[in-house]
Amino acid sequence: MYACKWLGAIILCLTATLAQGAGIRAIDIPASADGPALKGAVWYPCVQSPEKVDLGKITLGKEFPGQPVTHDPRIKAAVIADPLTVFFTPNSFGAVGIPVQLWASELGGDGVLPHTADIVDKSLPSKHEYRVVPNAGHFAFLAPCPPALAKEVPLICVDANGFDRVAFHRQFNADVLVFFRTHLTNAPQ
């Protein structure tokens, strides 16, 4: 079953990328006096490939990381979408002092229970945004699936009756962008 989930995720990434629905890009944060270089990957749910967004020293690269991500003072804000809390301890967020936007699905799914984001919400020591998406399942945070993929992998592509994933992503993407612009740049909104 575990292998099937990974295969489904890989198929989603490849199919959605070929359909220009979404993709994965590497992030490279160069080393500075504040800390070591950080590398990571980001899923982007946009129709176009990501272009350079001026957020200081963050640039999109071509290589994927070979090192774990650690706390770094250059990380100024974070968005957490429908977290699976089995990876966190009660103290995991104790030192978080940066702005956080936390999103949760009302229905959960695939191990994420409807109340699990509440655990993160209560564990964050600083003021933060917390939003629960009505009628959304866990996989609603993935980009909308092309019709062929929705037939093959309905678990991650088909939402509850009445939930519009395209409309949700239009609003979700806009809200996340406003959040990051507010906390990371002086760019107009």
Question: Would you give an account of this structure?
Answer:
The structure is a single chain. The protein is an alpha/beta fold and 189 residues long. The chain has one domain (2-184). The protein starts with a helix and ends in a 5-residue tail after the last helix. It is built from five helices and six strands. The chain has helices at 2-18, 116-123, 147-152, 154-157, 165-184; strands spanning 23-29, 38-44, 59-61, 78-81, 100-105, 129-133. The longest helix is centred in the C-terminal third of the chain and has 20 residues, at 165-184. Strands 2-1-3 form a three-stranded antiparallel sheet. Strands 4-5-6 form a three-stranded parallel sheet, sandwiched between helices. The chain is globular and about 50 Å long.
Helix-strand sequence: HEEEEEHEHHH
Q: How many DSSP helices?
A: 5
Share in β-strands: 15-25%
Low-confidence stretches: 4-22, 45-69
The biggest sheet, with number of strands, parallel, antiparallel or mixed sense and barrel status, is: 3 strands, antiparallel
First-to-last CA distance: 44 Å
The gist of it:
With 189 residues, the chain is α/β, with parallel strands linked by helices. 29% of the residues lie in helices and 17% in strands. The strands form two sheets. The chain has a three-stranded antiparallel β-sheet with strand order 2-1-3. Strands 4-5-6 form a three-stranded parallel β-sheet, sandwiched between helices.
Write the layout of secondary structure elements.
Blueprint lengths: L1 H17 L4 E7 L8 E7 L14 E3 L16 E4 L18 E6 L10 H8 L5 E5 L13 H6 L1 H4 L7 H20 L5
Parallel strand pairs: 4-5, 5-6
Antiparallel strand pairs: 1-2, 1-3
